[in-house]
Task: inverse folding
DNA sequence: ATTATTGTATTAAGTGGTTAATACAATAAT
DNA sequence: ATTATTGTATTAACCACTTAATACAATAAT
């Protein structure tokens, strides 16, 4: 988890996205404990306030539960996590298709291109 | 061209992307004249300084040419535009595939999903 | 020649994100 | 009981982006 943070967008939104990604991909399994705000901030090399801001948002979304003085953990609701994963995937696909169409590619061209690039990646 | 500007990223970078998109997709054909900075700024509902910043960057990239007192125009080098289009497409595809893999999808799953969604869009 | 339009530059103010340095309350660990 | 760790809150400073208002030089249009 190399915490890829760019400077072209607010850091806290990037933290939200990356932590969410770690949750839905199973890096942090349902019910597992998260490191403390301070530890996560140090790990990501950001200010604790910034990490806090990201975690609060994830809690509002229901993916994370806060236990006041004993840290935070991932929700045990595996269905909710699966739903988040599906939603993220659909967003990715539709954004991708929309962008490619704006670029001027027809649907069959898009399929051809992506088939070709997937084959490339298998090497 | 409804100038979709969100507040989660610098506006001038979004302007760059959208103008580039209009160039490679042919909204602004090679050699055609661009509206003045002030007009484009008003059209996009941004400050002229912000639009200026975006146009300067596009000129550095070679897609736009400045004629000091008679406005700007799109480059007549169609090859360069085609190259930009291809580059943008490849970026879209690789970013998409990378994100889907991070989400935990296998390559054959990605192909299945996108085939399915393309069929949906044809309706 | 005069006027209008072009890109460009400057200065000041406002805004939001980030960092830093602290502090506090609750409670788990000892 | 005491200590350490937890999330949380506050304040100030800094920085990049954005807007606003204005001005200037070059030149196309009249």
Result:
């Amino acid at each position: 988890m190399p915490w890829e943070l760019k400077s072209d967008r607010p850091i806290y939104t990037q933290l939200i996205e990356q932590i969410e990604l770690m949750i839905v991909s199973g890096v942090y399994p349902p019910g597992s404990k998260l490191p403390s705000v301070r530890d996560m901030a140090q790990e990501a090399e950001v200010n604790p306030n910034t990490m806090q801001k990201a975690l609060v948002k994830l809690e509002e979304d229901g993916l994370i539960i806060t236990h006041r003085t004993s840290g935070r953990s991932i929700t045990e609701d595996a269905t909710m996590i699966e739903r988040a994963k599906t939603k993220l995937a659909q967003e990715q696909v539709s954004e991708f298709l929309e962008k490619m169409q704006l670029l001027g590619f027809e649907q069959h061209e898009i399929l051809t291109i992506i088939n070709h690039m997937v084959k490339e990646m298998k090497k």
Observations:
- Residues 78-102 of chain B form the longest helix (25 residues).
- The beta strands of chain B are 64-66, 72-74.
